Amino acid sequence: MGLSTTLPRPRARKRSSQGVTLGQVIALANQKGGVAKTTTTLNLAVAFREQGFDVLVVDLDPQGNLTMSQGMDPDSVEVSMFDVLVRGVPIDEVIRRVEVDVAISSIDLAGAELALSGMIGRERALQKALLPVRGRYDFILIDTPPSLGLLTINALTAADSVIVPVQCEYLSLRGLVQLENTLAMIRENLNPVVEIRGILPTMYDGRTLHSREAIEMLKENFGDVVFETRIKKTVRYAEAPVQGSSVLRYDPKGPAAEAYRQLAKEVLNGAQPREHA
Ligand SMILES: Nc1ncnc2c1ncn2[C@@H]1O[C@H](COP(=O)(O)OP(=O)(O)OP(=O)(O)O)[C@@H](O)[C@H]1O
Ligand SMILES: [Mg+2]
User: Fold this and answer.
1) How confident is residue 276, by pLDDT bands cut at 50, 70 and 90?
2) Angle between helices 150-158 and 125-134 (to 10 degrees)
3) Least CB-packed of 151, 168, 221, 236 within 10 Å?
4) How far is Cα 152 from Cα 104, in angstroms, rounded to an integer?
5) Is 16 within the bounds of a domain?
6) DSSP one-letter code for 137
7) Residue 6 lies in a domain
8) What is the domain count for the chain?
């Protein structure tokens, strides 16, 4: 199909072999819908938590899927990330302590792009909101909506790095070019340090040639920016949120949970939790 000739090489730095800096903000982004952004945000966060790290997850998607997948109803919350971004409410007021700390979303967030669009500093609202809590967490993971609108731009502006979940199929791979172009613009205008931390192949089915070819194409084009961890296709990931749970709590010993522990290990690259007083 010649994808290798249509995808430009991304300006992504290689992962360092010296471990990771803690207190870092990671956005999970891909403008394509249904590629496992939310599933990855929650389960990676819980995998970090299992290892003793303090983790905040920010649900920046008006769909509120992450908020729901921790058993909360985004339709009945009083304050949410909307109020944080648009009204300057302190983020602490919307953080709920569940499997990890979650700054919750609500349907109101759908109006945030419009409300922010007329404001000075509209791209930096999230970065500003996170300042008071950054020192308290080892990791802050941001789940973003399936678009490259102002909410995702806020996430990419606040982030040190981006993890890009990609479904193992040809059409999903093409969207990476658009994401890379957006990141280039963000680097030029808003956040010079943001880099792709890794591309995560999701919904992988090793029995199909198509899945295996998609991985080959990814590696051909993005080299070692592609994580070694592959997230296999299994219904466990859809079952867990129905129980208001991560897959690590829903089926702790299963391979679905293990895959996200493996990803956490790959992202951590040997880093240990901080000593707490
Ligand atoms: N590895 C997997 N195997 C099978 N199903 C999966 C896997 N990962 C996620 N799913 C399911 O696929 C659907 C989409 O996943 P998810 O909601 O995480 O994607 P998303 O990228 O956040 O979607 P959106 O763009 O709408 O926010 C969900 O029903 C989820 O349970
Ligand atoms: Mg989602």
Assistant:
1) low
2) 40
3) 236
4) 16
5) no
6) -
7) no
8) 1
- Copy the structure tokens of residue 41: 């945000």
Q: What is the residue whose two structure tokens read 């102002």?
A: 150
Q: What is the pLDDT of residues 39-94, one digit of tens each?
A: 999 999 999 999 999 999 999 999 999 999 999 999 999 999 999 999 999 999 99
Residue 41 lies in a domain: yes
Neighbouring residues of 141: CB distance < 8 A, sequence distance ≥ 6: 26, 27, 28, 41, 44, 45, 55, 56, 57, 58
Whether the model clears a pTM of 0.70, i.e. scores above it, the answer is yes
The CA-atom distances, in angstroms, between 114 and each of 82, 117, 119, 150, 176 are: 11, 5, 10, 9, 26
Compute the distance between CA of residue 106 and CA of residue 83 in angstroms, rounded to an integer. 10
State the number of CA atoms in the 13 A half-sphere of 225 facing the CB. Answer: 25
Amino acid at position 27, single letter: A
242 token code pair: 């129905």
Helix ranges (H only) for the chain are: 3-6, 37-50, 65-69, 81-87, 112-117, 125-134, 150-158, 170-189, 209-222, 236-242, 247-250, 255-268
Query: How far is the centre of ligand 2, averaged over its atoms, from the C-alpha of 75 (Å)?
Result: 16
| CB 164, CB 193: distance < 8 Å | no
What residue owns the CA closest to ligand 1's atom 28?
238
Q: If you average pLDDT over residues 216-229, what whole number do you get?
A: 93
Give the Å distance between the CA of 139 and the centre of ligand 1.
22
Protein residues with CB under 6 Å of any ligand 1 atom: 33-39, 61, 63, 65, 146, 202-203, 231, 233-234, 237-238
What is the extent of the structural domain holding 88? 21-266
Say which CATH number the domain at 216 has: 3.40.50.300
Banded model confidence at residue 25, pLDDT cuts 50, 70, 90: very high
